[in-house]
Amino acid sequence: MYVTHKLTGWCIRFTLSVFAFVLMAASLPAQNIRVSGKVIDRTGLPAIGVSVMVQGTSTGVATDLDGAYAINAPGNGTLVFSAIGMKTVNVPINNRTVIDVTMEEDAMLLDELVVTALGIKKERKALGYAVQDLRSDEILKNKQTNVINSLAGKVAGVNITQSSGAAGSGATIIIRGGNSASETRDNQPLFVVDGVIYDNSTPSSGNSGTNGVTSNATTFSNRVMDINPEDIENMSILKGAAAAALYGSRAADGVVLITTKKGAEGQVKINFSSKYSYSWVGKAPELQGVYGRGLYNEAGSFTDFTTQSWGNKINGTAYDNVGTFFQGGNVFDNSVSVSGGSKNSTFYLSASSFEQTGVVPNTDYSKTTFRFNGEQKYNKLTVGANAAYTLSSTAKTLTTAGLYNGGGTGAMTALYGWSRSDDVRKYLNEDGTKYRMFEGLQELASDVENPYWIINKNKLADKINRFTGGINATYDVTDWFNILYRVGYDSYNTGDYTYIAPGSAVTEVYQRGRLSKGGQDYEYLTSNLMLNFQKQFGDFDLGMLVGHTTEKTERVTLSHWGYNFQTPGTISFGNIINENKFFSERTVRKRMMGVYGEFRAAYKNIAYLTLTGRNDWSSTLPKDSRSYFYPSVSGSFVFTELLPKNDVLSFGKIRASWAEVGKDADAYATNNYLWDPKTVSGNFIGTGNSWTGGSPFLVPEIQTSYELGAEMRFFDGRLGLDFTYYNTRTDNQLASPRLAQSTGYIFLTLNNGSVHNKGMEVSINAIPVESKDFRWDVTLNLCGNRGTLGIFLDGVGLFYVTDVQIGGVKAASIPNGGYFLGLTGDYWVREKDGDDNEIPNGRYQIDPTTGLYNTTKATTNVVGNREPKMIGGLNNSFRYKNLNLSFLFDLRLGGDIYDGTSYYTTLLGLHPQTLERNSVTVSGVSSVTGEPLSYTYERGQNYIVNNASKSGEYMIQQYWRSYAENAHNFITETNWLRLRSLSLSYDFTPHFRSTKLIKGLSATVSASNLFVITNYKGMDPEVSVSGSGTGGSGSMGIDYNGVPATRNFTFGLNFTF
C-alpha cells in the first residue's frame, strides 16, 4: 500500500527468471543409457515415490505413479531401493537394462529420517530430543480449512484451540505451554516453510482498545491459513529448545517445519482434487422459553420496558430465535497440481480455490492460492526456487464487543440475550425503515441492536494479498563438504473495512454512519549462508555446520476513518467533511543478525552427540545488550546395539538434551513516545504518553530447558513407545506489569520474573493386526504440562495481558508460583475461622443488608486454572485391500473453563436455571455475626430487607444476579472425549490400470466434530473468546457469546492423470 516495493519487484523478477530456466531445463532429455523397471508392493500395487539410488553415488530418481523408474547406472553397479516404512533392497545390476523389484513394509524403519532445524534430515535414532512429524496423507485424511487444526490430537505436547465456528476463524497452537507473560507475545511456535520463516501472526485491525489492552470484537484468521494444505508434503514439530536452538530467538516456543511438495523424475503428473463440505452448528446456548420480556422493581411493579426476561409467562409463541438465526455452511474446495521432471530437473505447480459460506448469514471466507517449486542440478551445483501467492478475503460480523460506546452490541451477544417472547427477525418496518422496540421511549444509543440489523447493515471485512518466495543454491565441494545459500522473502498486505450504517445503536456522534479502512503491510527478508561438513573416520562419523543469517522485518499499520455521512446512501470518505476524517500510520522496523554452529559426532550406530551455539544481535535491545549467545547439547544412546538380538525388544534408545535460547524485545520497547496529536470535531485536544513506558536497560529473556526421553520398539517394530520429560524456565521476562496511572503510564516494559513449564509426553504406536489384505494401525498421544510464574518484582501481583474480562472474571497470570493460565474474579465468601481465614467448603456468608450472599468486590481473587492436566489423541486406521477407515478421538482431562455465555444469559433471565423463580432460599451464616442465617423469597410476597419493603419477585431477580456474580457457579473443571474426525476412503486405482488417461482415482467421505462427551454444560468447550494471536496467557478456556463450533460432512474425489 504505502511501502516501497522495489525489493519485492526485484525478488519477483529474479525468481521468475529462475523458474523459466528450471522449466526449460526440465524438458531436456537425459544423455545416458538408462536402467528401467517397475517397483510394486507386496499387494501388487505400484510403489510410488520409492528412492532409487546408484550405490556410492548421489545419482538417484523416484518411482512415478505407475511405480516405474529409469536411471543412469554402470553395468557393474548396484541399485538401492528405499522408502520410508519399507525395507531397503540392494540389487546388483549385472549389465541388465530391466530390473523389477517388490518392496516390503518394515515397521522398524517408519519415519526413520526426520526433518530437523534448518531443514536438515537426520536419522531419528541420532536425535537427543523429541520430534514428531505428519506426512501429507495424514494431513489430508480429513482436510481442515486451517492446517493448524490438522495437528489436533496427533502430536504429543501440542495444544490446539480453534477460536470459533465462524468462517475463516483462526486457531492457536501452543507447544509445551506458554513461555512469556507479555501481552505482545502470543507464545506460538515459529513456522518455517521450505527453509524460509513464515509469519503466522493474527492481524486484528478494527478491534477496540480499552485501558491499554486489546478488546477483540470478532475472530480473525491466523496467517498460516494462507497455505494450501494440498501443497504440504510433511510437517515436523520441533518441541524443545535443543531441537529449535539453531533458529534463534523466534524459535523459543518451538518450531513447525513445513516442507511442500516437489516434482519427481518421470512423466508429467496431474493431480486434481475436489471436495464439498456441509457444516452446521453443533451446540448453541439453550434459552428458556417460559417467561417473556419484563422486569419487577422493589415494590413489585411490573414493566416490559426492558430487554431482560424476568417477565410473566409467555402466552403466545416462544420464538426459537437462536435456532432460526444460524444457517447451514458450505465449502467448495478445488485444487490442481502439475509436476514432473527429468534426471536433473524437477518442477511442481499448483493452484487452488476455496469458498466457504459461514453458519452466520452474510459471512464467508475465500482463498485462492498458486505455488511453484523447482529444482535444477548442474553437476555439483543444485539450484532451487519456490514461490507462492495467496489472495484471501473474509466477510464477518462483530460478535461480542460493544459497538463504539453505544448500547448496541455484537450479533451473538444480542442474539443470545433476545427474549423469546419477541421475534428477533423483525428488524425493519414494512416501509423498510428501522424497527425500534422502544422508539420514543429512550435514546437510540441505549437500544440493544438487533442481530439481523448487524449482519445485514453493518459490514466488517478484510482482504489479504500474500507473496512468499525463496531461492537456494547448494554446491557440493566434495563428497563430505557442501555450501548452501538461501534467500527468503515473505510479504503481505491486509485491507480491512468496517462500516456502521446510519441509524445504528451507537454513541450519538456515529449515528449518521461511520466508515473505517485500514490495514497492514508486512515485509520480511532473510538470507542464510551455511557450510556443512560430514566425514567418516573409522567407527566415528563426524559433522560440523557453521552459518550466518540476517533478517529484516518491516510492518506498516494504517488507519483511515471518519463519521457522519452528509448524504444518506453514499458510503465513501468523500461524503464526510474533513473535520470528521482521521488518518494514522505506524511503522515498525526490526533487524537481526546471527551466527551459529553445530558439531555432530556418532560412534558406530550406538552413541550420538550434538553441540550447538548461536549468537544473535538484535536492533530491539539497548546497545550494551544487543549481543547474546546461547548453546545447547544433546545426545542419544542406542543401547540395543549392545544387546543380543531378540524377538521382543527390537530397538531401544535413551536421549537427553540441555539448551538455552535467548529472546529479544519487541521493537521500540526501550523507548518512551507520545501518541499522535488528537482532534475531535476539528478541535485539537492534545497529545499524551503511550500506554506503555519503555526502558533503556532491557536485556534478553533467557530460556533454559532440559529434556530426558526414551524410545523403544518391540516385536520387530509392531509396538513403539516414546516417553519425554521436560523442564523449562524462562528468566528475565520482558513483561509489562500494570502500574498506578499516576506514573503517567498504564504499563511499563522491564525485565522481571520468570515462567516455568514442566511436563511429560507419551506416544505409543502399534500395528495390532497385519496381513496381506488387512492392517490396523493405532497411535496414542498423551501429554501434561504445568505452567507457573516465578517471583516477580514487589507489588506485581497479577498480569492482565489482554482485555478478557467477563463480568468480574478475568484471564490472568499469577506470579510467585501461581497459574500461568489463571482466572481471577469475584465469588461468594465462605464462613471464616478464628484467624479470619475462609473455611474450605464452609457455609456461605449472607449480607444482612441485602438479604443475599456476600460477594467479594476485588477481582484479584484466584478462582481457577485454565490449563488442562492432560490432553491426548487416539488415532486409528484400518485398511482392507483398497478400503481405508480412520478415526481420531481427542481427549482432555481437567482445566477450568469459564462459561461466560451462561453468566450473561443468567443475568438476563434467559438461562434455563432461572426458571426457578417461584421460590429461592438463601442459607448460610451472617457476614456480621457468623451465626446461622437463612432467607426464603417467594413470588407474590413482600419482605423487609435492611428496613425496606421489597417484593418477592424483585428479590428472586436479585438472587439470580447475585448468583451470576459468583464466578465458581460458571467455572467447570472440564473433561471431554471428542470424535475429532472420521474418514472412509476407497482407492479405485487398480480398476484403471488398463487406462492411459486416469492413473489414479480415490473417493473420500469424512466428518469432523460429530460428537463431544463432556461434563461442560455450555457450548463447545474448545473455546478462545479473543481468538488466535492473543498475547500472554491468551483467552483459551473462556466462553463468551461466540459463534458456536460447527460439525461437518465432507465428500471428496481425487484424480491423477
Automatic annotation (TrEMBL):
Limits of the TonB-dependent receptor plug domain: 128-255
Keywords: Cell outer membrane, Ion transport, Iron, Iron transport, Membrane, Receptor, TonB box, Transmembrane, Transport
Record PROSITE patterns: TONB_DEPENDENT_REC_3
PANTHER family xrefs: FERRICHROME IRON RECEPTOR-RELATED (PTHR32552), TONB-DEPENDENT OUTER MEMBRANE RECEPTOR (PTHR32552:SF81)
GO biological-process terms attached to the record: iron ion transport
Record-linked InterPro entries: Beta-barrel_TonB (IPR000531), Beta-barrel_TonB_sf (IPR036942), CarboxyPept-like_regulatory (IPR008969), Plug_dom (IPR012910), Plug_dom_sf (IPR037066), TonB-dep_OMP_SusC/RagA (IPR023996), TonB-dep_OMP_SusC/RagA_CS (IPR023997), TonB-dep_rcpt-like (IPR039426)
Keyword S-adenosyl-L-methionine: no
A Gene Ontology cellular-component term: cell outer membrane
Start and end residues of each TonB-dependent receptor-like beta-barrel domain: 435-781
Keyword Metal-binding among record annotations: no
Broad class of where this protein is predominantly found: membrane
Protein name (database record): TonB-dependent receptor SusC
Annotated localization: Cell outer membrane
Membrane topology: Multi-pass membrane protein
